Amino acid sequence: MxxxxxxxxxxxxxxxxxxxxxxxxxxxxxxxxxxxxxxxxNGDAVNGLKLDENGAVVIDESFTRxxxxxxxxxxxxxxxxxxxxxEPVVNKYYALVKVVKDKNGNRYHFITNRCGYxxxxxxxxxxxxxxxxxxxxxxxxxxxxxxxxxxxxDQAEAxxxxxx
Length: 164
Description:
It is a single chain. By secondary structure, this protein is an alpha+beta fold. The chain has 2 domains: 4-79, no CATH class; 94-160, no CATH class. Helices cover 15% and strands 45% of the residues. The protein has 3 helices and 14 strands. The chain has helices at 33-41, 122-131, 155-160; strands spanning 4-13, 16-23, 28-32, 45-47, 49-51, 57-59, 68-71, 74-77, 94-102, 105-112, 117-121, 137-140, 143-146, 151-154. The strands form 4 sheets. Strands 1, 2, 3, 4, 7 and 8 form a 6-stranded mixed sheet that branches. The protein has a 4-stranded mixed sheet with strand order 11-10-9-14. β10 and β11 form a beta hairpin. The two termini are 24 Å apart. 25% of the residues are buried.
């Protein structure tokens, strides 16, 4: 069975990568570059990371563009923008791990680079996307678009079928 994890941040010593902080749906783990590579080669999903054509672990820029790295006590962007004006002004990163649909609307479940877990409604997510980049979700013509690797739980459907 495929296990799914989501990257919360890169663990750095200065600019040197030491490993990754990953969320597995219940708690956070710290894995080395080699451990992440082994998981990806075994078919496990690590949202936010992927293997490149040479087999190296790289950031999946289609899932995450504003991943933070932690060096000492401070966070900074791992991927630098081409223009200094495009550099993020915040040092908090959100990665979408799950969307729960129900009769009251969508609830978006995020992890943060500070090992937090936060839930927002659609209006809040749209407002946040206007000012910062979030992993696994983006605005497309004013609508929230969720990355295909994010779990979507349709509780409204489960209730209709009598399963929930």
